[in-house]
Amino acid sequence: MALDKSYQKVPGTTIFDAEQSAKGYHLNQFCMSLMKAENRERFLADQRAYLDEWPMSEEQKQAVLDRDLNECIRLGGNIYFLAKWGATLGLSFQQMAGSMTGMSEEDYRDLMLHGGRAIEGNRIADQERADESQPAQPQADPMGDAVKAAAAGADQQAPEQHAQITGAVFTSHVPAIGVALDFGKDEEPYWKRVFDGYEFSKAWEQENLPDVIFLVYNDHATAFDLSIIPTFVLGTGESYPAADEGYGPRPVPGIEGDPELAAHIAHSLIREDFDLTLVNEMTVDHGLTVPLSLMFGQVDKWPCKVIPFHVNVVQYPVPSGARCFKLGQALRRAIESYDRPIKVQVWSTGGMSHQLQGPRAGLINREWDNQFLDRLIEDPAGLSQTPHLEYVEEAGSEGIEMVMWFIARGAMSDIDGTGEIEVDHRFYHVPASNTAVGHLILSDHPHEKE
Predict the structure, then answer these.
(1) How far does Cα 19 stand from its chain's mean position?
(2) What is the DSSP string of 7-74?
């Protein structure tokens, strides 16, 4: 089903949704910079020069120079951010509001003294009646065709052309694997047995290259420290550099994101009551870069876009496997409602059994790991009910990372009955440093529509 964005029909109103946020990100960050006195002084001394320091569009810069708040909002500005700019210019909120309504500050103040703008004449139905009384005119759509289709509401069927999930990849993301690759140790006997398990995977990716990877991983106290502990983080930015985890960033390419698809997914998942933290800027650590290296090898540029999705599995409480499984199902609905014919793979990373702390450090449970892989393929819904205690006791304290695997599994078509899966590859090995390595590739085969 198409996304319900009927709020776009409210007259005289622009809702700051994920698409608007992506469009106006740098404009709003410019406004935030004006919270520092030295930046306000530099801006007022030479407004154009200061604006040129920001990667804003020429339209956005001109709207700022023209003090055109309506245009700034159309181009992605948010009134709370723009208020910082207005304050820098010495404008009161009433002056700003008056300018957007075509009124002077005095007239706007008088309007408010008499009870404010009446709701009569300012509802959707009033606007529709006004539109019907006017001759039809072609209208520019600044938000693009994707939003136009979505604005029709949730009663509309998914567009004929839409994004498709083509497969799922599950893999451990051991940091030492990245070190071995980066220092050319992949042919050493210890490491060769690990990397041999991914030779098929690299060939498979070449033959099944997606446009976008939705990559589920956990940050390892790199981008998120104890000052903020979000449960689910969706990367909605344009790019993400490799993180310095204490010994310098890995020598791998930065990540190119897909802000438009990410914004669409954000809207859909939050509407389904999944509380996400949306992040436009963050570094990504080995949890994300090691799986890419395993599947694509050493490259100068990753061959597709990547949307990072972080799950907190470091500090309890952590989400359950069942919650992640439901999120994967919602993710499939979100991706399939995106009206561009792109191919998407969903990757879930982490695990398998391992413990990195305390007297049980080094714990590995081969039997439990392989039973997990069996049931992930054959009975994912039942497996998702596994309690946290079992992960910790049987798979080690850091084995809890495997709850993330249910996101990719829940996104497969056999779960909602619209298709079937095929197991293309399965690999398990002990050890890679302190960890058991598990790996699965599932291809997704939707049923033919009659």
Answers:
(1) 12
(2) GGGSTT-----HHHHHHTHHHHHHHHHTTSHHHHHHHHH-HHHHHTTS---HHHHHHHHTT-HHHHHH
Cα–Cα distance list, 446 to 148, 167, 288, 420 (Å): 27, 11, 28, 6
- The answer to whether the CB of 413 falls within 8 A of the CB of 420 is yes
Q: Which domains, from first to last, does the chain contain?
A: 6-150 (1.10.700.10), 164-446 (3.40.830.10)
Q: With contact defined as beta carbons under 8 Å apart, do 294 and 171 qualify? A: yes
Q: What is the DSSP letter of 423?
A: E
User: Whole-angstrom Cα distance, residue 62 to residue 85?
Assistant: 14
Whole-model pTM: value is 0.88
Interatomic CA distance for residues 368 and 116, integer angstroms:
66
Among the listed residues 301, 283, 279, the one whose alpha carbon sits nearest the alpha carbon of residue 292: 301
At residue 185, what is the residue type? K
CB 328 within 8 Å of CB 409: yes
173, 264, 267, 286: which one is catalytic? Answer: 286
Q: Which of 446, 401, 400 is nearest to 422 (CA)?
A: 446
Active site residue 354: yes
What's CA 387's distance to the chain center, in Å? Answer: 27
| Residue 213: predicted pLDDT | 98
Q: What is the pLDDT of residues 357-397, one digit of tens each?
A: 999 999 999 999 999 999 999 999 999 999 999 999 999 99
Strands (DSSP E) contained in 124-259 are: 164-171, 212-217, 232-235, 239-240, 255-256
Q: Is 447 a catalytic residue?
A: no
Q: Of residues 264, 267, 310, 354, which has the active-site annotation?
A: 354
